Amino acid sequence: MTDDPTSAAAPRDRWYVLAVLTVVYALNIADRFSISTLVEPIREELQLSDGGIAFLTGVALALFYVTVGIPIAALADRANRRNILALALAIWSGMTALCGLAQNYWQLLLARFAVGIGEAGGTPPSTSLLADKFPPARRPMALTIFALGASLGAWLGSSVAGGAAERAGWRAAFLVLGIPGLLIALIVWLTVREPRRGQLDSAPTVSQPSTLVATLRFIATQRSAVHLLLGGSVATFWSWGLMWWTPTFLQRSHHLTVGQAGQLLGPMHLIAGAAGTLLAGWLMGRRAAADPRYVARLLGWVTALATIPSIILYWVVSKNAATALLWIFVPAVYFYIGPILGLLQNVVPANMRATTCAVLLFIANVANLVLAPQIIGWLSDWFAGSFGAGHESLRWALLLLAPTGFWAAWHLWTSGATIREDEASATGELSGPAAVMD
């Protein structure tokens, strides 16, 4: 039994769509994450500094990802989201394969630019589609399952890419990860149906698409949305900024090969990352999670507590101790992704969801693809040049970044103060402890 008036109208194919879009998200993360696994062999072949390889591997993708992302999301709030997603997947998969054919710096740089353009059309249409497949009370849970794609993708980008690079060089890793995406793009185009926008919201559906300016103005009136955007962005700056350089850290400070680093981190992403995501999904499915304040405060606590091992693991000199701490830290990297996406979908109207997701991705990816890799790269070069830190220069740079997790935790906790009222004004439905989910 359920009191949710939208449950009966929920699309029957919603679980199939969720599964397919989770695979698409996994490919998005895999294509992006693989290059962090391959930083050291690429840097050595192209003879780059840490700052130089940070630009090639992070900033090059982000320049187009963050600038093209919002216009594509605005289009997704107006046009067929399924078609946009299928085309975007085909582009970033094809361009990832082309990275494997690059013979010099400039060819690889241009291919990374194109990967960023394609990946910009991935997550905003996906989250908007899922918001029209699941009713409001179920969206945090659905988006948490969707977030399983991050752990699966990171495993592909670590173990599969690392193994391929160990056997056949770093170019082979891009070919192995890029080509399958073309087939998945065809599956999306042929089997996923475009739903009617806002069909499961209690408020009347808004037929007219919103402009970017109107969306930003509305977000500014939603205090919880502002804190969720900032909290999610700082959290990615902290967690994924650290993880971006962790394979290189393991190779330098603990003397692992690229394949060994990938094999060490891969199971952590797949097993611990999936466990962290599933735990979040289970908690989102409990009755208490119908109150968004519970979700916001839980995110704040988990992020704050996970910051502690994220600091210690880059301090200890023992490989075994660092490995044990990574098994604690890695699940936390995934825990917050789905719940934040789900909460954001509920604090904005249906015609602003893809754009709001793109705003989050814009800020978050500037943080974790532009700022974090480049700042750490520059700091590592500075410690090596000015203090003679040698291979340990990266360790000191990572230690300076790790405490920013506490900053993210504060934003996530604070978002709970007004989130119930903000959700009611956006969707016409006031969540609370008494809400019953289907």
Quick overview:
With 438 residues, the chain is mainly alpha-helical.
Write up this protein.
The protein contains 19 helices and no strands. By secondary structure, the protein is mostly helical. The protein is globular, with a radius of gyration of 21 Å. α16 packs across α17. Residues 1-9 and 432-438 have low confidence and may be disordered.
- How many alpha or pi helices? 19
Number of strands: 0
The N- to C-terminal Cα distance equals 7 Å
| Percent of sequence in beta strands | under 5%
H/E series, N to C?
HHHHHHHHHHHHHHHHHHH
Radius of gyration: 21 Å
Q: Helical percent range?
A: over 70%
The largest β sheet comes out as: none
Overall average residue pLDDT:
84
- The residue ranges in which pLDDT falls below 50 over 5 or more consecutive positions are 1-9, 432-438
Class derived from helix and strand content = mainly alpha
SSE diagram, text form:
Elements: H1 14-37, H2 39-46, H3 50-76, H4 81-99, H5 105-119, H6 123-131, H7 139-146, H8 148-168, H9 170-191, H10 212-221, H11 223-253, H12 258-285, H13 292-312, H14 319-335, H15 337-346, H16 353-387, H17 393-401, H18 405-414, H19 419-427
Descriptors:
0% strand; 438 residues; globular; 19 helices; single chain; mainly alpha
